[in-house]
Specification:
By secondary structure, the protein is mostly helical. About 75% of the residues lie in helices and about 0% in strands.
Length: about 270
């Protein structure tokens, strides 16, 4: 009886995976095919193929400028977030203080609460004080990225024994030396994990960026949304071409992240 149940559960699990993968691959294949397709009015595949839709999308948006803005925002976000999140994660990993639990729980809020709930008042404030638009985009996206990094970095720092720091202090090492010579090298996998996963998260950040970005400060994902839903007629094939570019960049970052991420390290030390 147990064997039958086990085999039945395996069957339904396999069926679910096949159904999910078939749906995702079907959608992805259709978008890619349409981005190269020409005269696709009937039939399973297009009657001809072209790269003109990619040229159209590139000329419509000045693709080099669009990619430049996107990666500038992402790089600044990741660097600033690391500079803020690493010391904060160190404190959360090493120190015991009152309300530590509630403070750690607060770090989850930007990832649990829909971004629009705090994004609209945040965007209103940033636009009202009239800071440069690109800077406003970066400041808004720091809100979810910094807590995300803290949650990733904390378990990596916890795994470094405090005895190493104590021994270094006994030998006369300063706090800066301990950070530079001990903590940073030993937590490098965590820094890479937090940085690369944050790159993936920042590239796909839409809600807060959409509320603030305009004109030359639009990122790739906002431009893609604008093409699909803004006023005016645009060829669907050109929209799909831009979607393929966005998908390719995101998947490349994700694959790089998976190369460095070790899920067994991303756990909190049991006290």
């Amino acid at each position: 009886m147990n064997t039958k149940k086990f085999k039945l559960s395996n069957f339904f699990f396999t069926l679910t995976i096949i159904f999910y993968v078939a749906n995702v691959m079907g959608i992805l294949f259709t978008v890619i095919l349409n981005s190269f397709g020409k005269n696709w009015f009937t039939g399973i595949i297009p009657q001809a193929y072209t790269v003109d839709w990619y040229k159209y999308a590139a000329n419509e948006h000045d693709i080099l400028h669009l990619l430049g803005v996107t990666f500038f925002v992402v790089i600044v976000l990741v660097v600033v977030s690391l500079l803020v999140a690493y010391p904060a994660a160190y404190v959360m990993a090493r120190k015991e203080f009152k309300f530590k639990g509630p403070i750690m729980a607060l770090f989850f809020l930007p990832m649990l609460i829909p971004p629009m709930t705090y994004g609209i008042p945040l965007a209103t404030l940033l636009l009202r004080i009239r800071i440069p638009n690109l800077l406003a985009v970066i400041l808004a996206n720091l809100v979810p990225i910094i807590p995300f990094m803290i949650l990733i970095l904390t378990p990596f720092i916890e795994q470094v024994g405090e005895g190493l720091e104590s021994a270094a202090r006994m030998l006369g090492a300063s706090r800066l030396t301990i950070f530079a010579k001990i903590l940073i090298p030993l937590t490098k996998p965590g820094i890479l994990t937090a940085g690369i996963l944050s790159v993936v998260k920042a590239i796909s950040a839409f809600d807060l960026t959409f509320l603030i970005a305009k004109g030359s400060s639009m990122t790739l994902v906002v431009a893609l949304y604008s093409d699909a839903f803004a006023a005016g007629a645009r060829p669907m094939q050109a929209i799909d071409a831009l979607a393929v570019i966005y998908f390719g960049i995101t998947m490349t970052c994700l694959l790089i992240a998976l190369k460095f991420v070790n899920p067994t390290q991303m756990v909190f030390k049991i006290k």
